[in-house]
Amino acid sequence: MLIQDQAVLDENAAALGVPRKQLMESSGNAVAQVVREVADPGSDVTIVAGRGNNGGDAFVTARFLTDYDVRVRLLGRPETITTDIARENWEALQRAELDAQAVRDSADLDVGAPDVVVDAMLGTGVTGALREPAATAAERINDADATVVAVDVPSGVNADTGEAAGVAVNADHVVTFHETKPGLQDVDAEVTVADIGIPAAAELFVERGDLLRLSRDPQSHKGDHGEVLIVGGGPYTGAPALAAQSAFRAGADLVRVACPASVAREVQSFEEGIIMRSFAGEMLQPHHVDQLLDRAVEHDVVVFGPGLGNANGTLEAVGEFLEAFDGRAVVDADALQVVPDVDTDATLLCTPHQGELQKMGGETHEDWRERDDLVAGFADDLGHTLLVKGAYDVISDGETTRVNRTGNPGMTVGGTGDVLAGVAGALLCTQDPVDAGAIAAYANGRAGDLVVEDRGFGLTAADLLNAIPTALWGDSDG
Ligand SMILES: NC(=O)C1=CN([C@@H]2O[C@H](COP(=O)(O)OP(=O)(O)OC[C@H]3O[C@@H](n4cnc5c(N)ncnc54)[C@H](O)[C@@H]3O)[C@@H](O)[C@H]2O)[C@@H](O)CC1
Ligand SMILES: [K+]
Q1: Which of 46, 343, 418, 425 is positioned for an S-S bond with 114, CB 3.0–4.6 A?
Q2: Which of 152, 175, 181, 203 should be mutated for ligand 1, with most atoms under 8 A from CB?
Q3: Are 395 and 441 in contact (CB under 8 A)?
Q4: What are the residue boundaries of the structural domains of the chain, listed by start?
């Protein structure tokens, strides 16, 4: 599990009522358990802790090791402990009058001659080579004739890559939490993966933690967050316009709409920021496909379907396009029924409601617990990602399945699906398909919830549009 996935999971657990301090309690307990396995009661244990939550875990461990001779050494001043929960656990050691002291300088660090050293200097928060005093402390720990138990990851080792940019702790045992980390594969130590009470629901349900994947780099340039081409319109004009506007709201830098020339002016009138790329005629036809493919490769993601209609020539054109396309696309509305019949190298995120799913040949079920397996199976058959809309949205690529619970009955109004497709298109520029689908469903539903909380039912797709930025980047404690 990558560090970012862990952070997402953590925040999702908090959203589900299991705050991180509770996880820290379980982590510290799990480390104490391993210390008991490697040393008998009465043994000397030195805990070397950093100022982050990795250190916090070990402050908890100290409390659990009542039958041992424990000394805790904090590297740095207690006032600079970086999180409240780690500080609270440090203060608990002070109040209990345990042997817990801060060392300001590595020169003052006396590891002693313990039976066990618990390395809790740095965990997943480390970036780059160990700085002082941690670097010298790591050398002291490595020189000590003791069994070394590392908390989460040996300090100095990057949990994602296994690389050490400088000196790192040589651990005999590593106690990591919830799931193993890729970087521990090459570490020559016994690894224990401890369950720390993260509910399975934190992994299944899309919650505010998933939004952590969207961190926007302040240094970014126009184009970094993606260029989206909406292919839609003809019989309908509102649908492509809504999808284009919502792609902007979800952070796309540039949005262009390819639609029949007959409706281009009308689509443009919804939003002056949209760049029109119209093709001749009144609806999409096979002879437009080459031109569309040329346009498509200039974009990160194509959103195919909003308002295209289902005329014969149109569906044929969708099929021909998808057969020749090898980029990323969101497929929505009438275009969906073509997907099972095409052989394509494209990466597709398909966004059917349950009626459209059935038209594609997929099965549905009233109970989301049953539906979730059916959707996963069908996604696997298709070889594409599905976001099946419902009271509970199910997102799956056959391997990873997520369920979104935001949204409300007011959202059955027309146009909300077009908004979702546009958001998914913008997110698919920077996220993998399951994450893009999951976050899009969450944001769309949450936008609907925000509107209804504010004004009651009677929302329109345009209201939803305006609430998308808050749903994605606003205050997330709701
Ligand atoms: N689900 C989870 O993710 C849980 C994580 N927990 C613990 O939390 C840890 C992560 O905590 P944090 O995010 O607070 O991070 P860390 O405790 O790993 O480190 C943060 C501190 O290290 C400093 N630092 C960063 N790079 C450094 C370097 N190269 N040299 C010296 N200092 C450096 C930072 O300034 C910061 O003060 C995990 O490893 C794990 O032990 C547990 O508390 C419970 C649950
Ligand atoms: K550590």
Answers
A1: 46
A2: 152
A3: yes
A4: 19-197, 220-473
